[in-house]
Known about the structure:
The protein has helices spanning 12-21, 41-52, 65-79, 91-103, 118-126, 144-150, 173-185, 239-250, 258-267, 273-290, 314-323, 349-362, and strands at 28-29, 85-89, 109-114, 130-135, 155-161, 189-193, 215-220, 233-237, 304-305, 326-327, 329-330, 341-344. Helix 1 runs parallel beside helix 11, helix 4 runs parallel beside helix 5 (118-126) and helix 10 runs parallel beside helix 12. The strands form three sheets. It has a seven-stranded mixed beta sheet, sandwiched between helices. A three-stranded antiparallel beta sheet has the order 9-12-11. A two-stranded parallel sheet has the order 1-10. The chain has two domains: 4-39 and 272-362, Alpha-Beta Complex (Aspartate Aminotransferase, domain 1); 57-267, Aspartate Aminotransferase, domain 2, CATH 3.40.640.10. The chain is an alpha/beta fold. It contains twelve helices and twelve strands. The protein is globular, with a radius of gyration of 20 Å. Helices cover 39% and strands 14% of the residues. 45% of the residues are buried.
Amino acid sequence: MFAKRMAQINSSGIRKVFDLAQDLQNPVNFSIGQPDFDVPQEIKARAISAIEQGFNKYTLTQGIPELRERVRAHIKETRNFQPEAVLITSGVSGGLLLASMALIDPGDEVLLLDPYFVMYKHLTGLVGGIPKFVNTYGDFRLRPEALEEVLSEKTKMVLFNSPNNPTGITAREEELKTLASFAKRHNLFIIADEIYDHFVYDGPYRSISAYTDNLLLLGGFSKTYAMTGWRLGYAAGPADLIGEMTKLQQFSFVCAPAMVQQAALVAFDLDVSRFQEEYRKKRNLIYEGLKGVYDVVRPDGAFYIFPEVPWGKDEEFVAEAIRKNLLIIPGSVFSERNTHFRISYATSNENIEKGIEILRSLAGG
Ligand SMILES: Cc1ncc(COP(=O)(O)O)c(C=O)c1O
């Protein structure tokens, strides 16, 4: 009954975790990929007044001009990059779907750095593309040899995410240069998912757009302003690609929510550095609590950390953690390997402390 493409999507890893977790009372939850603070008051107030003022109808498919202009100015200011065109999307997820549909033909190979954000593999498969995995295990940094290893004449593009979900690793300047020059040499397009650009802890944010403009930059509001349920993001890049994506949006999402687009106009004026400071402390807390007991790379961005399992396969270890009232996600949800697990530390410091205690006992440490 179902289209063959549905066989490309396998959500069994996550489902198993939630099945196991169903009966838990008040677990320590390290599984959630969204901030633990609420939407800033100024944004809420603007959304409410936008609804009252009647911003409840369809907007232009590409998004309201004022917001596109703000996004363009923001990108120029923060990245010194001037995209030809901007499209307002229903979250970065919306941008990823439209871009995948617009760019990938059946049989095209798409490079994903492994571990990868779970959606990339499934979206690539959904449109008939073939994901090829660039191994970053060890320190989760990009090595030129790893890119060369998976290159073929069918390689079309690279889906790149920094800071990374699930490792929390933020690409350094030399990695960005490596990727940009590799892409240039082999005429590959880059989709840069920069949704965690505000969550960097050990230096300024560096975008791949400093080294190439043959790219589509995806950015969002979900994480920075805790607006995950509001569904807003943007895509910025070549005018012809944005045109194709707009055409697809017209016949799918239609537009991003009107009142949310209005609310986002105030977002760029807000200072969110206090969240960054809080999350830096959380990063320190979790890393210091696990290092020495777990084999773990110190993350420098997003709100994830990706330790190696101390025994067994990832799913066995996660099942045992759940029995101890701790929710974590097996690494194989984000990877071709089953040797690690993902922690989201976007939770209270008290919960982080509790989780560390459970994890230390699970490792026998
Ligand atoms: C790397 C990455 N990209 C995109 C998304 C989706 O974000 P949005 O809520 O903007 O669709 C997420 C959410 O977890 C993510 O981690």
